[in-house]
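=== Given protein ===
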Amino acid sequence: MRDAVIVEAVRTPVGKRNGGLSGVHPVTLSAHVLRELVARAGVDPALVDDVVWGCVSQIGEQTYDVARNAVLSAGWPESVPGTTVDRQCGSSQQAVHFAAAGLVAGHYDVVVAGGVESMSRVPMGSSVAGQSPLDQDYLDRYDGVAPNQGVGAELIAEHWGLSRTQLDEFALRSHERAAAAQDEGRFEAQLAPVDTPDGRVAVDEGVRRGGTVEGLAGLKTPFKADGVVSAGNASQISDGSAALLMMTSEKAAALGLTPIARVHSVALAGDDPVKMLTAPIPATKKVLDRSGLRLDEIGVFEINEAFAPVPLAWQAEIGGDEKLLNPVGGAIALGHPLGGSGARIMTTMVHHMRDNGIRYGLQSMCEGGGQANATILELL
């Protein structure tokens, strides 16, 4: 029976907006992790059947099929194709799902899944160019409300009774955990530092140290007057790329490679597009039901920190152990390079599982339109 396993996973450091990676073309970032991926695995890139790449703002430097452009920029054989996926913030997690499905179906023997976003160079929303992607029937269905992620985060906080202090405490915890992971070298094995004309970027740039609840409380709440969501408890605008080398167990054995993890179960869910960010809750329930696993069998949960209300509402509904939720920090501290985030999170999770002998890990992330991917990996 065919399966889908991950044999290597790498990522760039996540750069701050207008930070160390802002001078690097998104195709160059993507090509960098592609080269690093096969170099670490010792695999001939000619064996790769496809590169499935997530990217949200597919305009300007990120258009014209950024996946294929990255393959050619990396110097890989012209025989290697690439395709670019948009499921909003979950684009590169969806790329992993498509890659796994292709392996199980026999469409691929070796495939790369990943993604990229340079939010410094291709600003969020730039693909809209003043035109609405929503037609009148859509707007009529939701009483003329055009969804807004920040407003959705405020609605979630209100629905689950989450206070500003709770959100800010969660944000500080994300930074504290990420800082501890940096200090202990827990990210080093997954990172592919990037050399730029201005110097080498070797660490995630968004991690802040020494913050206080009192300091965060002074930040404005731009989405709602007297609201609770601020820049301090939301994900950072970022640049970055990540990639995972996937194949069947049979192919890994033939190549003499030892897989890290197997894609155990996957699921998708849709939910209210106005609240927008709640779908990780039904997606998690669905993937657990599909897997046959109990919640207490999962040793790490990665729920994307698009805004602090998202993982906190998820925790309130699902009940996962707080110590196992985003144990090395999340997007509030590490950043959220949209189309690259799903692969960044999965790269971080699979390394954390290997480093700590964790058998099962679960990842989910909210996505535009009120959607979510959920993935359970099994350590091998």
Observations:
- The chain has a mean pLDDT of 97.
